[in-house]
């Protein structure tokens, strides 16, 4: 397997980070001009670096990578190319600076101390120094700096309301009348109460029967007119005529 990191990806990444300091976006043709690589090789390198190191975007150009572009790079890309320090690179740089200071020191005692410190940081205590540098550089190399806590809002004290007066105890309720319900037999059905005979209404009194010994006329009585005088069979009376015959009933 051919190693392409040192020959292709790292130079493309370094040129991308450097060009983004001059423009808000970098095209494949810009990177190819900076690295002297072919546009196709630059495009393959950016595809390998996306998305861990770069935000690589392609336009509709029919497969021509000339105007494909990088919008931004990640914090990890900046640390890889050395724009942002890592804990390990920071310790290496610190040991180199201590050695350089020792070489320029004229005092023998100070020269020995600086050389001893450079050996401790760069070799003997390197692991501990890297951990310490990581703790120190963590806010600086993070993707988002930690936000400072907002000051707590001052809340004015609330006035305490006076306790409400105690309410009088309610009057006791009168007990409700207890209704005695007869027990139901087993099975959930209640026996029907026996029917009581209801006396029939008394018959209206019959009218008194007519007494045959009593004569009750069914029409108004006819008054009998008693004619006084001689017998009609004897002929008409002499003298003035009396009243005419009465109409028959």
Any overview of this molecule?
Among the domains are: 5-80, Winged helix-like DNA-binding domain superfamily/Winged helix DNA-binding domain (Arc Repressor Mutant, subunit A); 87-141. It is mostly helical. Helices cover 37% and strands 4% of the residues. A 3-stranded antiparallel beta sheet has the order 1-3-2. The chain contains 7 helices and 3 strands; from the N terminus they run H-E-H-H-E-E-H-H-H-H.
Show the helix and strand layout.
Elements lengths: L4 H16 L5 E2 H8 L3 H11 L4 E4 L11 E5 L1 H6 L6 H18 L3 H17 L1 H16 L108
Antiparallel strand pairs: 1-3, 2-3
Strand count, sense and barrel status of the largest sheet are: 3 strands, antiparallel
What name goes with the CATH superfamily of the domain at 5-80? Winged helix-like DNA-binding domain superfamily/Winged helix DNA-binding domain
State the CATH topology of the domain at 5-80. Answer: Arc Repressor Mutant, subunit A
Major beta sheet, strand line-up: 1-3-2
Q: Indicate the overall shape.
A: flat
